[in-house]
Amino acid sequence: MADDGSGSDISIPSFLMFKQDADKLKAEMRNNKPIQLEMEWSIPSPDDRVEYDFFTIPRNRVAIDFLMKFREAAKLLDKRAYFTPHMYIYDGERSGCRSEDGANICYNLCTNFGRYCAMDPDNNLDRGISGADIVAESLRRICIWKHYGEDDGIGIVWWDYLQEFMSRCDNEEYFSNEECVQDAFKHAKVDGKAIDQCMKDSGGLTQDKKNQYFDNEITQAEQTGVVIIPAAFVNGAAIRGALSFDNVFGSICAGYLSGTEPVVCAQCASCPDVFDCAANGGHCAAAFGTSSAAANAVSQKTFAGSLFLVCAVFGGMGMAVYSWQRRRMKDEVRDLVAQYMPLEDGDDKGTSLVGGENEFQMS
Question: Distance (Å, rounded) from C-alpha 136 to C-alpha 172?
């Protein structure tokens, strides 16, 4: 767009809109009313099934809450949505962690002789969880998905393993502890031997050779345009805003062709607590609570009768107090008048008013 000479006051970033819309906003501003605008990209909705992807790594604190909660939504969406988890792995060769003679020069951040790396989660190379530990757990999760989620796109066992691992092993002491990993396998009903074999067959972690699963993950991240993690995509479109259960679930429901949304989307769309609705199988507990409150509410007739009774009682009390105060005031006035009344002629000694105005007589 060429500048016709009137663009000197336009800076970047700027937002262009139609004049008829801008005039309405300017009118509100002139009336000193607050204005809030939102720029939103719509989610592509080509058919009756949604594909959504999630890029993260183990120990990513921002993603933990989402990963612990979204299992129920994945289960409810069933085969109407296909989920693909991705592990974000750094290419060690591009990052300069593999020397020309094939040696790992990034200490314990990488595996496969410097080919695949991850950041140290606690920023301490000498203790705690290392980048190589993150890479190893990433490969484990990829293999679990290959065995238990790739076919149906739901992967309930994969979600179960994540919850078991994060509740049992996600700390410095047990993160890379083989016994803790096996315990998580057991509770999530994962075939540990099959997963170990999968990790070896893909290229492993210790030998000087490539790992096909990690190469695929690096390529996927590059093609998708992931630059920050965690990141979620619905039908290939990046989800903007906070990575929350409500945000991701709402984006998935918006990704269906109009009229083909799953029942759970309609059931939970207007629920104040979307996660609670999904956890309850699509039943909005908040809505039921409102209905229950309405059922126990006081009827209008009862309320009106109670209000009238209260007003009558307080009105009666007010009249009684008013009458008592009037009687008391009359008595006080009568006493005062009696004290200043003229004394009759008689035997009483003292000063009295017997004459005209201002005329006094001493007796």
Answer: 15
